[in-house]
Amino acid sequence: MLPLTSGLGDRRRGGWLGVALALLACTGTAWAEDGYALWMRYVPVDATSAGGYRAHAQEIVAPDRTATQRVAREELERGLAGLLGVMPRLRTTLGDGGAFVLGTPQSSPWVAPFRRDLQALGDQGYLLRSARIGERDVIVVAARDDVGVLYGVFHLLRLMQTGASLDRLEVRESPAIARRVLNHWDNLDGYVERGYAGGSLWDWHTLPDWQDPRYIDYARANASLGINGSVLNNVNANALSLSPDYLRKAATLADVFRPYGIRVYLSARFSAPIEIGGLATADPLDPDVQRWWRKKADEIYALIPDFGGFLVKANSEGQPGPQDYGRSHADGANLLADALAPHGGVVMWRAFVYAHDVPEDRAKQAYNEFVGLDGALRRNVLLQVKNGPIDFQPREPFHPLFGAMPRTPLMMEFQITKEYLGFATHLVYLGPLYEEVLHADTQARGPDSTVATVIDGSLDGHALSGIAGVANIGDDRTWSGSHFDQANWYAFGRLAWNPRQSARDIAADWVAMTFSRDPDVVTPVVDMMMASREAAVDYMTPLGLHHVMARGHHYGPGPWVDGGPRADWTSVYYHRADRDGIGFDRTSHGSDAVSQYAPAVAREFDDVDRVPESLLLWFHHVPWEHRMASGRPLWDELVHRYTHGVRSVETMQATWDRLQGRVDAERHRHVAAFLRIQRNEAQWWRDASVAYFQSLNGRALPAGETPPAHPLAYYESLQFPFAPGDGR
Ligand code: BDP
Fold it and tell me: Mutation test of ligand 1: which of 184, 191, 231, 235 has the most ligand atoms closer than 8 Å to its C-beta?
């Protein structure tokens, strides 16, 4: 078997050889279905669809002057070779056959007539249209800029990969959010914090001299989704990443990514002026410090002219920051913003901040810290807010800062890597989680003030807008540590482009491109994916429970976690269970976190009869007898949910088993093995949690429920010193 998929995107293999290889790849047996190709497999389409597509595929009429123009054309060639087994003629003028016509009004005379149609599109938007030019039927991929054309090509390929018709084609797309960014929590030594997909993709040691072809495939995958930024290093940053040597390495990655419309950003360590600048302070009001950052920005832009900017974690979990000098987060953010502003860079300042001395319900702290800074941040600062007020839990209410800072562009931070959702071994499709948050109504300016309208800038009229996903990408052959985790990268990218899309539709596209277009595969797999997040919530943190994972590495259950350096790093702080009841009272009678939401939302969350049951224990401390909508007492309902979570995974296993023979054996086996792990770990979660809460309330199990397999002490004794991804 040929290792065909390695370095599939290596442009040095371009031209006829690349096409020949792609054709060979399509003959069937030579294709290694190891997941490397992601959703860009370009396997042959059925004969009927192919007939329709081939009519257009005699020529590609495209400009060939810029690197982006070239990669757009090459991607189309690669796609057509795989999907249809054809090698269209490449032309810069229109010939006499059916053609795909690519370009911008400036780069192509054939696209110039569409100038007016493109006016309504935003930057990077594109138009796909079937049109007649002279006597010829063509498919036009038109945009205002080259990157828009590249995005349009990927969209066109998606249509073909999913078997859509190209007749009467009329697609207009513009990104809703300007900065669509991956955050890599990659350390300079190659370790990925909260990474479950192997080591870092970036080989800092061999950069800048060696450019791993995989960097190109990474860029292709992101461009296929419209992701246009990459923060290369961990938010728990090492100042060395700003040193001349590492900047040269980053500049090389920027060079590789540039044709694909991806800008490089770096996480900046606030104390870098001390650590690599030799200054005695990093005080943001110190003129030497200000000068240092300005010079640093100049140095970066000399190497990376389109550098995106800095991401900063400051005064959070031990990271240095402006408060070390008695200054505010605004002072800190503005210091860096002023240094970047002359070059057009932005600061993405993280709101994931909670105090050292734990004075308050942790869920309230970021809001308290930042809400008063509205209007105090420079125009090139985005405040990057995690989706919920605690920390990437299987379910959280939306963060109360969304809608609360009208004068500040707020950026979303989602986690794609599944730190709290079973790592890469659990099949949990995050599309529904993202969708739930984006569609949540903050009610900040009345109804329909959804989180999506906050972050796309439309609610308060911000041109600067952004969304970040903490990447689940590593050097594992599958990129994401499992086949199904690729779907989370994919869904993040698609929703970043258009946060109003449905998670189900996105899943359907992904399955069709990744596994099979056969509806007998797509339908059950999509159903399985759509149910998977709720399954994980049920077996891990039902009814609004949160942060009950094992300490540190967060692998497996740890509802008993207590003691240690700070209360809000323990589980008992969050669930507050005892003999009589369970849940965190965040109502107006408790920590009053509810008051951080707009009044209509606050009233709903505050009222035990109106709060969604899925968030009950997030906002309320209730007795074990509390009557649930099902008619069951809370305790019975809790156990029922845990068990239901396990059963849901069994249903997923059964679905997957039935697909044997319809999905290639290589990936089928891999997924089946991971589902077995998930099934066993779901049972572990259920049993450990039931045993623990039962030890507090002394209640009998509801009728029909199986007792945990082991006594509580057994679950408490389990140790996993080498669980992956732990912070260090
Ligand atoms: C937590 C992670 C930790 C990160 C932190 C952050 O456990 O590794 O550094 O978030 O977002 O969820 O800064």
Answer: 235
